[in-house]
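Reference record
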Amino acid sequence: MAESEELPDAPDAARAVFTGEAWPRARAFAEMLAGPGVVRGLLGPREVPRIWDRHLLNCAVVAEAVPEDARLVDIGSGAGLPGIVLAIVRPDVTVTLLEPLLRRTTFLEECVEGLKLDNVEVVRGRAEELAGKRDFDVASARAVAPLDRLLAWSLPLLREGGQLLAMKGERAAEELDAAAQQLQAYGVHSAELVTVGRGKVDPPATLVRVVAGRSPARSAQGARRRRKR
């Protein structure tokens, strides 16, 4: 591996974010991403020098927005960002890594086993296949799809009052505005931009937080079922 692609030492901020048992697990996960993760094409080699700042720390601060003891589904988990990172920093949270591609789920399973994360399960599949079978308190997603598509995948997985935490960059406000009609159609309680990681990452991370409500479609279905009774 070329010098420019070597995994750097963890920055001081990492020790403040990954505390206790999370610290050795974070270091081990960084090595997994820089090694097998790159070899298998889950992470580009040019991302290796930025694993701590751009990936691990940026994902870890999302935990600020996750309620205690939540059941979380990480949609399109890929290399485990942010799902595995959240599981490392928040052992109280039960994490389901949802990923359709076999080579990625294989990597995720190896990471979960190697890191001894007993609060994580890996599920191979798509969000549409899990809808109606499971529900969650939180859905997380990073670099998966535009917000309009992400809403269609995530909201059917959330209980009423559950929340989507979508990691978005500079276009977060634009995507939120563009999805206004769809947000209304789903009957969400609220949708807003949230900043996390102030003083820990620079720049802080921007999330789109959508709190799920009872969609008009579901409410109508429920009313029809009650009338039939």
Summary: Strands lie at 71-75, 94-99, 120-124, 136-142, 158-168, 190-196, 205-211. Residues 22-39 form the longest helix (18 residues).
